[in-house]
Known about the structure:
By secondary structure, the chain is mainly beta. It is built from two helices and 18 strands.
Amino acid sequence: MPAPNIPGYALVWSDEFDGPAGAAVDASKWNSKTGPNSNHEIQQYTTSTANAQLSGNGQLFIIPIKDGSGHWTSARLESRYSFNCDRGHQMIFQAEIRLGNNPTAQQQGLWPAFWTLGAAVRSGIGWPKCGEWDILEVINGSSTNQGTLHYLNSSNVDPGPGGRVNFSRNDYHTWALKVDLTAGTIQGQKLTWLLDGNPFFEVTGATVNNGEQWDDVAHKAFFPILNLAVGGDYPGQPNGQTVGGFESGMQVKYVGIYKSNT
């Protein structure tokens, strides 16, 4: 599906997932990560089109699969490109996504997400110093999203401020994070999480209240990630009722990065 126009912004990068049904994603845009896992997740990320495939009508399907031996496979796609917000401007990371609608009891341990990491992680800077924006993060078939900011504070811990919002799993929704650097000082700059254009969480430079830390999470470049993890510290492990397949996965119409014209 074409990424929509946003008045006052230019679309600087996107993937609209065009291509024949069953094809792999565009390898010039995405890196298919295959490991290692973190957070005690149990899935094996693969490059197989069984786990990440084009729909044939402008969508990406990410599908978790449990084989006959009880082993789980899934996909994690990381953009090859990173983007930073120019000072005095705004930037939006946005995607339109539907989550699978299997019964909640059948999605224990499943963890779909649309999120970002700071590009510094690709230069050896560890987490959470590199910064992380969790835009869409849902566990266990829930209808509540958790938006979170991860960074390293002055006490060398990740404070992990976050906000929650409810949504309908039957529908596609537009999930976004806006970086606003129009203010001249960090106190007035902000990160805003949005569901269907409506803000549900915000962190300001005044909240972080540290120039170096705000630089890590608002001024530096980030890259988008789409994945569906299985198990891990956050959702817990899958159980005997957990099922894979299309309605346990995620469907993505587009991912777009926008920068303000002024």
